[in-house]
């Protein structure tokens, strides 16, 4: 999965490197070259997630939109997380072939993302299932968006 | 565009046609033809001209209006501004330093 993501990101002309730092990842631009720097201590899954998250900032052109201390930046984060989850769920589906019997709670547990993203994961799971089988499976609605 | 810019920058650098031609190992006539717009220098000489006249080949060819090449420090500062912590919290000093060091390690020798 990671090699597939790296290949995809390189096709976009983004340079990826791994360094010692506190946050999981950072995205920026040097002389028109997009750069994603990843925390070198992450495991493979977190590297995959972080690259997808930072790639979304690139695709969404967020460097130009950024305003410090502004609510808008929460939205940039939300959109980046949504892209990250959509991409990872597509890949998990290719790998494990989701069905209506698939336990999405297990996916949530394995991805181990912050709780407030559970809603997006469930949404994406349901989108994939309804696209595949033309039905909307039963799911609990006891989660809420942040 | 090229002949005018070449001539202007040469005058400003207080160099004669002969001085530049000598440095490039070409005849003064060959150089004069560039300023007259009759011929264009080969890439190798274009690069040497840009170095001699302290500008970029892009400026000489009229592809940009920025005379001076940007320095590494300028590009570094600009780049660092493009790295944000999007999550609302500000990026730590340590991470900013780590990114800065990475940019220096990877790009400084290209200047």
Structure description:
Chain A is an alpha+beta fold and 146 residues long. Helices cover 54% and strands 12% of the residues of chain A. A three-stranded mixed beta sheet of chain A has the order 1-3-2. In chain A, a hairpin with a 2-residue loop joins β2 and β3. In chain A, α1 packs parallel to α2, α2 packs across α4 and α4 crosses α6. The model of chain A has no long low-confidence stretch (mean pLDDT 86). Chain B has 111 residues and is mostly helical. Helices cover 61% and strands 0% of the residues of chain B. In chain B, α2 packs across α3. The relative contact order of chain B is 0.11.
- Count of discrete alpha- or pi-helical segments spanning 4 or more residues of chain A: 6
Helices and strands of chain B: which structural class? mainly alpha
The biggest sheet of chain B, with number of strands, parallel, antiparallel or mixed sense and barrel status, is:
none
Helical content class of chain A? 40-55%
The termini of chain B sit apart by 26 Å
Order of helices and strands of chain B: HHHHHHH
Number of strands of chain A: 3
The two chains with the largest interface, and their residue counts, are: A-B, 24 and 22 residues
**General shape of chain A:** globular
Percentage of β-strand residues of chain B: under 5%
Instruction: Return the average pLDDT of chain B rounded to an integer.
Output: 90
Report mean pLDDT of chain A, rounded to a whole number: 86
Radius of gyration of chain B: 20 Å
Question: For this entry, what is the oligomeric state of its chains?
Answer: heterodimer
